[in-house]
Amino acid sequence: MNKNQWIDEDLLRRFESDGTDAHRLCTIDDGWAERFGAEVLISFRSNPARDRLLAEFQTWATSRKVQVNRVFGRFLPRKNEERERPILLQGSAGQTLQTTAAENHLKFGIDFDAGYSVGLFVDQRENRRFVRQIKPKKVLNCFAYTCSFAVAAARAGAQTVSVDLSRKSLERGRHNFALNELSTDGHQFIADDVRPVLRRLARRGEKFDMIILDPPTFSRTKGGAAFHVENDFEALIAAAVEIADRNARLLLSTNCETLTEQALERMARYSLKLSRRSGALHREPKPADFPPGAGARSIWMTLN
């Protein structure tokens, strides 16, 4: 899919047959539009980009006969601390700001009132599909947010440990388990900084056959400790390798614009060298609704 191109009818039908109504609709230089069930979110860096996406979306929705409840918009700031929750651009203001979206027949709660991010990162769809395909037994989901990877793993029969600084996000994760009629028995939700959790797990001798590492570009704990993905990701990968079982798979993913997939590969190879282990790297296909260069950069590392 190219920039400035709205998804065509064939791709829309494929999503419908896959039980997916959460996906990218269009990407332009200064923003994009995404669908979450019956709602649409327009993300923009300028007002002209917002107005263009809104006008083009209305034309697209009419031509495709897609029923939409509301359209929200959010500004894409340069600094994380300037992020704000989406605002209603079109539709009734009297309805709840919570809804549900589907991905490969899994359900996820969406909340336009919870903050800048609404609850599901659609650029990770193929990686979540891979999790279900592999059917891991024990998964560590770091920077879990609303636990979408844990839900995918649990559906495939795995036990999961989800770690995130935000208790509210983890509660939304529990809600996602409930939406999919998945029991939380055998699953842990830990509200803490990932780094000390990795050290505790290593001291206890715990091992995982899948570890998800999709950290934010920047975060800060309540105690003031900062995490910068450009500076700290390599050490994070090395710590994760210590608790990875034989033949374990690690997802290394980032939305940081300055970190390429080649940079992730270098970090992965350095972590293997440091741990004196061997492994292989591969990439899952890019989501069909994302043009080249858009969305998260991701690689999978398989340890021997």
Salient structural properties:
single chain, alpha/beta, Transcription Regulator spoIIAA, Rossmann fold, 2 domains, seven-stranded mixed sheet, five-stranded mixed sheet, globular
What is the CATH homology-level superfamily of the largest domain?
Answer: Vaccinia Virus protein VP39
Largest sheet: 7 strands, mixed
Distance between the termini: 35 Å
CATH class of the largest domain: Alpha Beta
Question: How large a portion of the residues is in β-strands, by DSSP E?
Answer: 25-35%
What strand line-up does the widest sheet have?
10-9-8-11-14-16-15
State the CATH topology of the largest domain.
Rossmann fold
Low-confidence stretches: none
Q: Please indicate the count of domains.
A: 2
Q: Could you tell me the mean pLDDT?
A: 96
Q: What layout of secondary structure does this protein have?
A:
Elements: H1 9-17, E1 22-28, E2 31-36, E3 39-44, H2 47-64, E4 70-75, E5 87-90, E6 98-103, E7 106-111, H3 125-134, E8 138-142, H4 148-155, E9 159-164, H5 167-179, E10 187-191, H6 194-203, E11 208-213, E12 218-220, E13 226-228, H7 229-242, E14 244-254, H8 261-275, E15 279-282, E16 297-303
Parallel strand pairs: 3-4, 8-9, 8-11, 9-10, 11-14
Antiparallel strand pairs: 1-2, 2-3, 4-5, 6-7, 12-13, 14-16, 15-16
Structural notes for this entry:
This protein is α/β, with parallel strands linked by helices. It has two domains: 9-96, Transcription Regulator spoIIAA; 122-303, Rossmann fold. It is 32% helix and 30% strand. A seven-stranded mixed sheet has the order 10-9-8-11-14-16-15, sandwiched between helices. Helix 6 packs parallel to helix 7 (229-242) and helix 7 (229-242) crosses helix 8 (261-275).
